[in-house]
Amino acid sequence: GESVGLHLPTLSVQEGDNSIINCAYSNSASDYFIWYKQESGKGPQFIIDIRSNMDKRQGQRVTVLLNKTVKHLSLQIAATQPGDSAVYFCAERKMWGSNYKLTFGKGTLLTVNP
Amino acid sequence: SQTIHQWPATLVQPVGSPLSLECTVEGTSNPNLYWYRQAAGRGLQLLFYSVGIGQISSEVPQNLSASRPQDRQFILSSKKLLLSDSGFYLCAWSVPPHRGLNQPQHFGDGTRLSIL
């Protein structure tokens, strides 16, 4: 199976609520993780990343948490807005020789209700 | 700033016809370049990546090929398309690891390919 997966394929929240999107990974050698947002008909857009030597990183309205003990990654979006509606992907990176590979999960569809 | 362009945005082709999708990157030099395919409701599958001109690595055996004739140009091709080649094709670039270890890949807006 895929080494990066998601607990929930869909998530529906009310505008103004906080959203939490979860991701499980199985490769303990992965050293870098990325969250992407993909709107309909567009390519994935980088949101935030985190190195494996960190357990938390904050951006503007977004926070990524990394729990290496249980190989779990989450994306928290504060005060969710209708413009946050999209599919969210997590990706893990594993170094591969002098280069690296990203493995993506299937994605979670976030719907924000006004 | 760096930008990535893919074209066309949508393409409808008959089975057995050739394919050429183009991707160009601006604002950076010697990027790593990637082609992905995304099936409906699924994640991204890496097809090809390139670390330099003329250097192509294939991830999965398939009906497609890739070329990098110039530093910032990446082309996805096929001589004869199959129905199974339908999908959403995404090009991406990244800074090579030796110039920045923890750098994400940046994606274009993709080409929606439909084979009839």
Key terms:
heterodimer; A: 114 residues; mainly beta; 6-stranded mixed beta sheet; 5-stranded antiparallel beta sheet; 11 strands; globular; B: 116 residues; 7-stranded mixed beta sheet; 4-stranded antiparallel beta sheet
Structure summary:
The complex is a heterodimer of chains A (114) and B (116). Chain A is 0% helix and 58% strand.
Task: Explain what the structure shows.
The complex is a heterodimer of chains A (114) and B (116). Chain A is built from no helices and eleven strands. Chain A is an all-beta fold and 114 residues long. In chain A, the strands form two sheets. In chain A, strands 2, 4, 5, 9, 10 and 11 form a six-stranded mixed beta sheet that branches. In chain A, strands 1-3-8-7-6 form a five-stranded antiparallel beta sheet, with no helix packed on it. Chain A starts with a strand and ends with a strand. Chain B has 116 residues and is mainly β. Helices cover 0% and strands 55% of the residues of chain B. In chain B, the strands form two sheets. In chain B, strands 2, 4, 5, 6, 9, 10 and 11 form a seven-stranded mixed beta sheet that branches. In chain B, strands 1-3-8-7 form a four-stranded antiparallel beta sheet, with no helix packed on it. In chain B, a hairpin with a 5-residue loop joins β4 (32-38) and β5 (44-52). Chain B has no helices and eleven strands. The mean pLDDT of chain B is 92. The chains are: A mainly beta (114), B mainly beta (116). The A-B interface holds A 2, 4, 32, 34, 36, 41-46, 49, 51, 89, 95, 98-102, 104-107 and B 6, 32, 41-44, 46, 49, 51, 90, 92, 96-98, 101-102, 104-110, 112.
